[in-house]
Design goal:
- The protein is mainly alpha-helical.
- Helix content is 61%, strand content 6%.
- The protein has one domain: Serine Threonine Protein Phosphatase 5, Tetratricopeptide repeat.
- Strands 1-2 form a two-stranded antiparallel ribbon.
- Helix 2 packs antiparallel against helix 3, helix 4 packs antiparallel against helix 5 and helix 6 runs antiparallel to helix 7.
- The N and C termini lie far apart (80 Å).
Length: 187
């Protein structure tokens, strides 16, 4: 008898559940991702990559820039963006190759010159970085504060010989703007 009561109670619960408005329909406030619509045009990989760089997601940004390279080809803009992502990830060798390749194709990009200068400062090549920052500053007509600050820092570091003094100065890369990096001294 108890078994029949449990069975009929279960049957009533199932019937009432089927009558509810919830069912298997999706609502707007679902925690799940929306379905993929293959008919819509994808967002440009450069736009996605820049947004991810702003969010500090450098590895994902590099993937987006790689997708942009597959769609658009290895344009100077794509190479500079991928080089900047590699720079942020600390992959200095890869970043240097990409930034220099970008500058070979389009040598009039002050942000790319600036990022190359930051890379050279990271490698300890202060004299070369100083020349690169000078070029970036000239191309930018002195409009960018970050390029000017980087040039000042490179000049100060190259004028400071460090003979007879322990030189334990620490520097870090700080992102400013779209793909601009600034070298700042850590306290």
């Amino acid at each position: 008898m108890a078994h029949i009561k449990n069975l009929s109670l279960s049957l009533i619960v199932l019937c009432l559940a089927a009558c509810s408005s919830g069912g298997f329909n999706t609502s707007e406030d679902t925690p799940f991702a929306p379905a993929f619509d293959s008919q819509k045009e994808a967002v440009d990989g450069l736009v996605v990559g820049r947004r991810l760089m702003d969010a500090g997601e450098y590895e994902l940004a590099l993937s987006a820039f790689t997708r942009a390279a597959a769609e658009q080809g290895k344009t100077p803009e794509v190479l500079a963006a991928a080089g900047t992502a590699n720079l942020a990830l600390g992959r200095l060798g890869q970043a240097e190759k990409m930034l220099k390749s970008s500058l070979e194709d389009d040598p009039n990009q002050p942000e790319t010159w600036n990022n190359l200068g930051v890379l050279l400062m990271e490698q300890g090549k202060t004299a070369e970085a100083e020349q690169i920052f000078r070029k970036a500053y000239a191309l930018d007509n002195g409009q960018s504060d970050s390029i000017r600050d980087n040039l000042r820092l490179a000049l100060a570091k190259s004028n400071h010989s460090g003979y007879g003094v322990d030189n334990n100065e620490e520097y870090k890369l700080v992102r400013r703007g779209g793909s601009d990096y600034v070298i700042q001294q850590t306290p």
